Structures are given as C-alpha cells and as structure tokens.
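Hi team,

As requested, here is the filled-out complex form for the fructose -6-phosphate run. I kept the field names the same as last time so the parser does not choke. Let me know if anything looks off before we queue the next batch.

— J.
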Amino acid sequence: MCGIVGFTGKQPVKDVLIEGLAKLEYRGYDSAGVAIEQSGALEVIRRRGNVSGLAHTLGHFDLEGTCGIAHTRWATHGRPTETNAHPHLSCDGRIAVVHNGIIENFVELREELARRGHDLASDTDTEVIAHLIEEEVKGIEKEGDFDSMSPDDFVRAVSRALSRLVGSYALAVISSAVPGVIVAARKDSPLIIGSAPAGSCVASDIIAILDHTRDVFALEDGQIAKLAESGFEVYAAGDGECVPIEFELVHVDWNMDIAEKGGYSDFLLKEIHEQPRVIRDTLAGRIVNGSIVIDELDLTSEELNLIDRINIIACGTSYHAGLIAKNLIEGYARIPTEVEVASEFRYRNPIITPTTLVVAVSQSGETADTLAAIRDARVKGAKVFGITNVLGSPVARESDGVIYTKANKEISVASTKSFLGQVTSLTLLALLLAQSRGELTTGQVKMLFRELGDTAAKVEEILADTSAIDQAAASCADASSALFIGRGQGAAVAHEGALKLKEISYLHAESYPAGEMKHGPIALINEGFPVIAIATDSPTYDKVVSNLKEAQARGAKIVAIATEGDEQIRSIAEHVIYIPKVRDAFSPILASVPLQLFARAIALLRGCDVDQPRNLAKSVTVE
Ligand code: F6R
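And here is what came back:
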C-alpha cells in the first residue's frame, strides 16, 4: 500500500507530483505530502487527508523546484496524522524519504538511533530510514565534506542504510546536499523508473508517470537507481556496496486504460494475479517472536480468553470467507462459531452477549445489511471486529477494532483478491485466538504461519500455467447449469466457485456439500452435466471420490480440483486441475484461484463483460 512518485528535470515539479499522486490514490489516501528542493533546502509539505487537500495547500506555496518526491499514505505504523505523513526527514532536515512497505525491525532501529541522539518525530517505521541515511552520509562526511558529497556517495549512503533494514520497501530519497538527484530502491514492493525527455521519474505504478514517459524500467529486488535530469543509472546493492549494472528500457505503448489494468486485458485478471502480493502484504509484520500480532483487535489476552462465541456476519463472497474461517476458528481455537448472511442476522434476534465476538467481513465496508448487523450486535453488548478493504469505511468506523485486508482498490465487481485477503486475515485471527487460549504452542503457530506465507508462492505456481483450467472451461462453456461440490473447507470453496461462475458468466450454478448430493441435487445430473468438485487432499478425500463416482455413473462431466500427484482422480474426472500440496486448513487459498480463472474463462467464451457483470454493483449500500 501507499503510493510514491518522484521527478527530477528542467521544469518545476510541483504539478507533476500532484498529478502523479492523484493517479496513485487507489493505493491509500489517509495523508499525503511532498518534498521539493528549493534554493538549496528541502521544502516539505504534508497534510492529513487525500491528495486534493494537499493540492489545495500547495496552491498557497510558491514552489519552483525541479526535483521532488511525493507520497500518498495508507497507514500501517502510526495513525493517519500529519506528523506521520511522508516525506520523513533526517535530524538536520537535509534528507527526505518516501516509502512504501513495512520495516519489520524498526522498533530496535528506533531505539538504537535514539541512543545515538536522534530525535524521531513520528510513529512510523519509515522515519528510521531517513536517520540511518543521515548517519551514513555523516560517515562519508568524515572522509570528505558533506556539501561536496557526490551523487555516487549519496547512492552508497542509501545502500548502506538499506542493508540495516529487515522488511519490504520501495523508496525514493532526495538530499539538499545533492541537488537534482533522486535515489530509489526496492525490495518486495513495486517501483518503476522512467526516462523522459524532460527528466527522470519514479513511481509505484506506471500510471503515475505515463503522461511523461513510455520508456521504463521495473526496478528489481536489491537494485538501487540514481535519477538525474539527464537520465538514470541502476546498481546492484549488496552488503551496502553498489555495482553499476546494465539494464534495458522497455517501451510501453499502453494507453491509460491498459496501464491501469497493468497490461492485463481486464481488471478481473489483474486482480486475480495480484493475490500472491495480497497474501504477503496481509501477513507482513503479523508475527513477532512467534506470537501472532493483531493490535487492531484492541483486546487484552484476558478479554480474548473470555470470548465464548463468535458470530461472523457478511454477504456474498465475504460470507464464503466466513464459512472458511468457521472451520479454522473452531478447528484451531475451539470457539463455537456461527456464520450468517447479514440480511438474516439483522432480523433474527440472534443470541449475542458481552462475551460474544462479532466479526463483520466486508470488502467495501459499506454493505447496508452488514452495517445494520454491526449496529444491532453493538446494541446487544458484543464487541465487533471489522475486516474490510476500505480505509475509513463505515464498517471500519463503526467496529470496535478493524483489520484491513491489503488488497488495494478492487475494481472488478466480482471479488477475488479481497476474498483471499479476507481469508488470510481470518486465518490470522484464528491463529491468534488459538495461541492466546493455549490451543496452539508457539512452535505450532510459527509452523502454521510459515505454511500460510508459503501459499503466496503456491498461488503463483497456479497462475503460471492455466492450460488445464482453460480446457475445462472450454468444455463446460455451453452448459446451462453446473453443480459445485466439496466437503469441509472444500464445501466452502464450492460455494464461492459457484457464485463466481454465475455472477460473471450467467451460467446457472448450484453448490452443495458433496454428502448432500444424494438428498436431492443428484437428480440434476444427466449425460454431460458439469460437476465441479473440490477433491483436494483432506480427511474426507475418499468420501468426495465416492460422491464423484456416483456422479460419474450418471454421466456427469467431472472437473476436479485435486492435489498434485493424485493419479487416482484421473480415472474419474474428465478434467483435472492440479494445485500444489497444502494443509487442508489452508486449501481454500489455493483451490479458489483456479475456480476464479475457470469462471472468467467461461464468461469470456460466453461474451460477457467480466469486470462489470449485469445487475451488480461493487458496493451494496441498500438492503
Ligand atoms: C461477489 C461479490 C459480492 C460481495 C457482496 C458483499 O464476487 O463481490 O458477493 O462479496 O456484495 O460485499 P462486501 O464484501 O463489500 O460487503
């Protein structure tokens, strides 16, 4: 989260930065700021609130500087205040930094810097970077004169400071001591450098600089770039030293529409591909010394241990994330958990007591029924914990605590990346509750957290080869109805798979726990009827296989989502879509991805608009 933009060139940079920030606002908008070199000093202006507020403030300043950096923030460490807004400065105000990412060892770095006399003004993790660079610059100063620090010295100072950081970063740094130069670096957060006729630019996303350049280089992890009016150079950084490297500019001829889609043909596909990043961002900083950390829950461990019932309330896809969470919370934390669609919950007079934790899950954070259910639960004395993707949304404001899924703005109406963000966040909640109540040891939590993190790379594996998904989709696209089945976590995934299919392809789909087939839905099956089964490695795998044989005997066309290495399933299913091996508890994170792609492929074959399906809206603000 957070957006960065920087420009150094021949012309005043103020408007370029503001226009760039406006395009990055989808990455966060709780505060914004700029640092511009002006007459040998850094002019820093920061404001709480969105970019238009900052633009208004900047209108009162006479800023002619031609080199600057800017930032729009989505708070992680420190509240969304003006003091915590970026850019952050070193003690002497001669270094300014904007940063996207999380510095995991910032607490110890902060203490260390304070011991050496640094005065840090904000609560952010970012500020330590400015101070570490300052120390490195001063180290260089001993060997020479600060004011004659060369651009290469500046790059080296940044590189040495970065070698102290644990975590993720994309950052841009300027110094009044080295006019006209921006140093940019990245590790696990995106950063694009551009070469423009009027100068050089850097941004978190190409859309922020596309008006100025079409020749870009996507910085890779561990690389540092030095930008000047005349162009930029790239270095490989290791152990604080920098070695110049060759790089090739890529010419993009995207229009803004394609650029916003990141080169994908639709937002749905772009957002499906963002899911590994969402998992990683959602987990970043959530374990410290083997303990799960969700400070936003704002409950002491005594209060956590008093919880004797959990009610998850949500709608649609968010409700399906809740079904997955029920299995996790009951399985790991042993707390009775109910999941209910908010539109039912709010009119039912449910049993809620002060020891009930209500978890409200909503991507948009403004679904009318979910909000009404939150209000009802709070009147009844329950603590409400919101899980949402939208900063400052009504669900966030009206809940006692909130965890933000790190999906960034989701544009396609069908939820994909926000769903995986919800499932990942709810899994963290289950682990926290289990650990706090002594149901899981620190060692078990560490292992589970690591496996949860590993799902990101496994989702990447699924995304790398979609040929089996496309073949299955082609063979089902003409059907008029389909049945999705699974057991346990697979049943929850089946519900989500069916919803995705019907909402974007308009192909009717039902979903059932596989064991329920014989109680009615099996009557649907005739020759060629598509049955999509979640048949991954699980304690009920054999039962699912038996259900599939029953469907096969009646002529069903079976598409199975199965675990790599399962050869048996090939004799039953016409199409097998393999996913990497993962523990059953976390299998929904992997198994739902091929179903998203399956639904999209069918929708495209049926000529549907996958980003804006008919009759639907991204936020359902009426009941
Ligand atoms: C389906 C979908 C919807 C939403 C539902 C709840 O892809 O996106 O089913 O999940 O409308 O919306 P939120 O999560 O915003 O409360």
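Two things worth flagging: The two ends are 31 Å apart (CA to CA). The first strand starts at residue 3 and ends at 9.

Thanks,
J.
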